[in-house]
Amino acid sequence: MELKTVVYYRNAYAHFVITREHKGVYCADLLEYDGLENLAPPSCIILVRGERKWWGSAADDELVYSLSNAITALPESDLFYKERNTSTDFTEEST
User: What is the distance between the alpha carbons of residues 64 and 28, in angstroms, rounded to a whole number?
Assistant: First the structure.
């Protein structure tokens, strides 16, 4: 499954397609950038969902934030983001 999203980046729109690579790891591939070519975002950005925040292979934290928001904005029932509730489950041990 893939997610297509548009983010505002350096006074222009960047069109990305995001795919899930592994649990908590996503790849955002740049499809199109409406701005100047020398200001374009990286063509491929790896996004990793940490326990409290997202990390990305792009140096621009705002871009990583915008892309991660596109993923977290999906409804919980969406299979693309189904792992949200399963990756933070903790098992309590009996003492």
Answer: 10
pTM: 0.77
Work out the angle at residue 44's Cα, subtended by the Cα atoms of residues 42 and 48, and round it to the nearest 5 degrees: 110
pLDDT at position 95: 41
Q: What does DSSP say about strands 25-33 and 44-49: parallel, antiparallel, or unpaired?
A: antiparallel
Distance, in Å, from the CA atom of 86 to the CA atom of 40, rounded to the nearest integer, reads: 35
Alpha carbon distances (Å) from 71 to 35, 83, 94: 24, 11, 36
Alpha helices in 1-95 (DSSP H): 61-72, 83-86
Q: Report d(CA 60, CA 82) in Å as an integer.
A: 27
